[in-house]
């Protein structure tokens, strides 16, 4: 594991990695901003069906060509790709990259279905390549600190963890988020952050129960996890709110740890102008900070691709989180608790 | 002035109610106590300046109205004594700790109001106004928490309390959501655990229920807070509706008080929810009105707690509506 105080491993002492970015939306722009100011990477191409004006401007800024995914990979010369496309396309692109012996940084969730995640795992095993998964919460300072407090034993035996993550709906900006078959909805796109953090911090999940209500794109989910170690974790997630708000409270036999989100900590802005809601955390727009979670997660991954230690979330983590999310989805569909079959 | 007697003092709220009567002009005065434990009864009577009754019947002869605040398992027999004497009752929650007890209390001829003080919290009163106005539309989901420290006393003993965190703390959120939205619970699933070295009941529990209208409602009723934590007892509900979101903090009326050593305490201000509830109860008795919170209201909320307990035993989603049938 890398240091918790940001990466200290320089991503390779050699030449910058040649990186392609797949996707033309909000997360592609976030990663392009990081890459544009990183000494460890040079963006050689951006590929997407449609590119936002922001992505176009960033591509121009870094001198990257805009092309198709096939051409980008077949032209050769890539060390890594960042996959920031709609969720249902992750698996095909990740497998294609593996076939071209290109390392992958894949946005969460790893894929729409666990079977697709397994397909990626097979391709990666066959071609000996690497996949990092963008479970960026592992790099948010308050969640990192909470994990350190838990693992340090300060709270005693953990009894309960209570997490919330509410946001404006991204579906008002990008319609595919409201299509469960493409995005998996709120559960796979937003709640998976906390599912992953709970697995990472409290250990494997034995059992899941979940409920969902509200129309697609504006749903609210409730996820109840029983960890193999006994802890009870509970997650609220919503796409019916005005802006992103997060928080967690962990209770143990020896104490309690509670923290709100770092995203807007100490910062409150009110503008008298109406506009489209933003669903991204403030950090996403401030990539130059040394502890910016989006910067550190990507540079950690690039460092791994260049021969350094692995980042906090790799293929196996992304796949395990996906399996827990899929169990929650099955629980919603069947209205019963679901045992998580494979979670180690 | 209505004379009030306490049937039992094992419950922490016994002293809370006495203090509320003494601290506010509610038109009533606590005058006597009966508790099955003679030593505890004498100590409580002395500490609070109350007369002592030696059985429930004697207490009922000494007072105009009774508050049942004994160990949960004694509710049916104490309410029966009050009913026989024709004394109006304020019954501490839950309604009962078994389906049999609930049925007994639901069929009691007593004039009985259930103690759900949260209905009187200022934020809940305002929420009720807003929701009665209808502008928020139908309930989509509710996430609630009513956590506290391990309460000690009989609460940790299954033979006296009937259960732990599920029996003690589910009903307040369960009732408030019903009160505000008119929803009824359909199913429930719960996870619970016994993490502390004391007691023989669940001390942490989380339930997720569904309503008959397709919303979900979750409640964290855990005794998960460290003892001595300022503001350890909380009551919060986040409710998503068709046309907006509403968040309620039942204990928001408190200031932070820092001592010379830096120790932080929370200092509640304003008229408390217990005072408001007792005032309403006394007024109903004085004016010959119906019980402000009839037994059936307690039964509906308690059914969710009992169904959640059954879910923990069986590991299955449990019908709430079927629990009292």
Verbal overview:
- The complex is a heterodimer of chains A (344) and B (325).
- Chain A is an alpha/beta fold.
- Chain A is built from 10 helices and 13 strands.
- Chain A folds into 2 domains: 141 residues, Rossmann fold (3-Layer(aba) Sandwich), CATH 3.40.50; 168 residues, 2-Layer Sandwich (Dihydrodipicolinate Reductase, domain 2).
- In chain A, 34% of the residues lie in helices and 23% in strands.
- In chain A, the strands form 2 sheets. A 7-stranded mixed sheet of chain A has the order 12-11-7-10-9-8-13. In chain A, strands 3-2-1-4-5-6 form a 6-stranded parallel sheet, sandwiched between helices.
- Chain A is globular.
- Chain B has 2 domains: 135 residues, NAD(P)-binding Rossmann-like Domain (Rossmann fold); 173 residues, 2-Layer Sandwich (Dihydrodipicolinate Reductase, domain 2).
- Chain B has 10 helices and 15 strands.
- A 7-stranded mixed sheet of chain B has the order 12-11-7-10-9-8-15, covered by helices on one side.
- In chain B, helix 6 crosses helix 8.
- The longest helix of chain B is centred in the last third of the chain and has 20 residues.
- The relative contact order of chain B is 0.16.
- The model of chain B has no long low-confidence stretch (mean pLDDT 96).
- The interface between A and B is medium-sized, with 31 and 33 residues.
State the secondary-structure class of chain B.
Answer: alpha/beta
CATH C-level class of the largest domain in chain A is: Alpha Beta
Largest sheet of chain B: 7 strands, mixed
Q: What class, by secondary structure content of chain A?
A: alpha/beta
Q: What is the multimeric organization of the chains shown?
A: heterodimer
Mind sketching the topology for me?
The complex is a heterodimer of chains A (344) and B (325).
Chain A: E1 17-22, H1 26-36, E2 41-47, H2 53-62, E3 65-67, H3 69-74, E4 80-83, H4 90-99, E5 103-107, H5 114-127, E6 131-134, H6 141-151, E7 158-166, H7 180-183, H8 185-202, E8 205-213, E9 220-227, E10 232-238, E11 245-252, E12 255-260, H9 293-305, H10 315-334, E13 338-339
Parallel strand pairs in A: 1-2, 1-4, 2-3, 4-5, 5-6, 7-10
Antiparallel strand pairs in A: 7-11, 8-9, 8-13, 9-10, 11-12
Helix pairs in contact in A: 1-2, 4-5, 5-10, 6-8, 8-10
Chain B: E1 2-7, H1 13-23, E2 28-34, H2 38-48, E3 51-52, H3 56-62, E4 65-68, H4 75-85, E5 89-91, H5 99-106, E6 112-114, H6 122-133, E7 139-145, H7 158-161, H8 165-181, E8 185-193, E9 204-211, E10 216-220, E11 236-241, E12 244-249, E13 254-258, E14 264-268, H9 273-287, H10 295-314, E15 318-319
Parallel strand pairs in B: 1-2, 1-4, 2-3, 4-5, 5-6, 7-10
Antiparallel strand pairs in B: 7-11, 8-9, 8-15, 9-10, 11-12, 13-14
Helix pairs in contact in B: 3-4, 4-5, 5-10, 6-8, 8-10
């Amino acid at each position: 594991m890398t240091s918790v105080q940001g990466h200290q491993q320089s991503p390779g002492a050699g030449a910058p990695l040649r990186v392609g970015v797949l996707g033309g939306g909000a997360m592609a722009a976030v990663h392009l901003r990081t890459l544009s100011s990183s000494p460890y990477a040079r963006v050689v191409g951006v590929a997407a069906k449609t590119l936002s004006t922001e992505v176009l401007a960033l591509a121009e800024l870094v001198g990257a060509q805009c092309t198709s995914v096939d051409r980008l990979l077949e032209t050769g010369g890539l060390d890594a790709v960042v996959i920031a496309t709609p969720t249902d396309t992750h698996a095909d692109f990740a497998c294609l990259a593996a076939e071209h012996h290109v390392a992958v940084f894949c946005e969460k969730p790893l894929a729409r279905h666990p079977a697709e995640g397994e397909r990626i795992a097979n391709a990666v095993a066959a071609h000996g390549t690497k996949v990092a998964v963008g479970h960026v919460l592992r790099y948010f300072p308050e969640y990192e600190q909470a994990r350190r407090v838990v693992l340090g034993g300060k709270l005693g035996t953990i009894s309960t963890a209570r997490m919330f993550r509410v946001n404006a709906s991204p579906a008002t900006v990008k319609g595919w988020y409201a299509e469960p078959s493409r995005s998996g909805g709120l559960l796979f796109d937003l709640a998976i952050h906390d599912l992953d953090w709970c697995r990472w911090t409290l250990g494997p999940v034995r059992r899941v129960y979940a409920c969902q209500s509200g129309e697609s794109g504006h749903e609210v989910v409730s996820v109840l996890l029983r960890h193999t170690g006994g802890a009870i974790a509970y997650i609220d997630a919503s796409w019916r709110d005005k802006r992103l708000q997060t928080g967690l409270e962990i209770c143990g036999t020896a104490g309690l740890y509670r923290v709100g989100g770092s995203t807007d900590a100490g910062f409150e802005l009110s503008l008298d102008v109406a506009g489209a809601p933003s669903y991204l955390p403030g950090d996403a727009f401030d990539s130059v900070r040394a502890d910016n979670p989006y910067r550190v997660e990507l540079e950690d991954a690039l460092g791994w691709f260049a021969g350094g230690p692995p980042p906090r979330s790799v293929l196996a983590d992304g796949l395990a989180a996906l399996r827990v999310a899929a169990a929650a989805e099955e629980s919603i569909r069947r209205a019963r608790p679901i045992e998580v079959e494979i979670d180690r | 002035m209505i004379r009030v007697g306490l049937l039992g003092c094992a419950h922490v709220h016994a002293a809370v109610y006495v203090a509320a009567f003494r601290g506010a002009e509610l038109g009533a005065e606590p005058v006597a106590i009966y508790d099955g434990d003679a030593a505890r009864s004498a100590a409580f009577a002395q500490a609070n300046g109350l007369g002592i009754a030696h059985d429930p019947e004697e207490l009922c002869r000494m007072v105009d109205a009774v508050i049942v605040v004994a160990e949960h398992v004694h509710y049916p027999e104490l309410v029966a004594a009050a009913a026989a004497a024709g004394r109006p009752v304020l019954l501490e929650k839950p309604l009962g700790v078994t389906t049999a007890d609930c049925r007994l209390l639901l069929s009691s001829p007593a004039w009985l109001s259930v103690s759900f003080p949260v209905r009187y919290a200022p934020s809940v009163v305002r929420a009720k106004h807003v929701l009665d106005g209808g502008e928020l539309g139908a309930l989509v989901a509710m996430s609630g928490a009513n956590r506290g420290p391990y309460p000690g006393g009989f609460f940790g003993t299954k033979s006296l309390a009937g259960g732990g965190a599920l029996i003690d703390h589910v009903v307040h959120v369960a009732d408030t959501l019903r009160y505000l939205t008119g929803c009824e619970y359909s199913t429930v699933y719960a996870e619970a655990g016994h993490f502390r070295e004391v007691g023989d009941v669940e001390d942490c529990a989380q339930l997720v229920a569904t309503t008959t209208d397709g919303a979900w409602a979750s409640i964290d009723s855990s005794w998960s807070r460290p003892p001595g934590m300022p503001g350890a007892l909380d009551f919060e509900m986040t409710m998503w509706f068709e046309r907006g979101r509403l968040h309620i903090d039942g204990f928001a009326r408190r200031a932070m008080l820092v001592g010379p050593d830096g120790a932080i305490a929370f200092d509640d201000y304003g008229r408390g929810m217990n005072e408001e509830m007792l005032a309403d109860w006394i007024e109903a008795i004085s004016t010959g009105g119906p019980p402000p919170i009839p037994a059936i209201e307690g039964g509906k909320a308690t059914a969710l707690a009992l169904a959640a307990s059954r879910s923990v035993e069986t590991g299955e989603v449990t019908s709430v509506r079927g629990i009292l049938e």
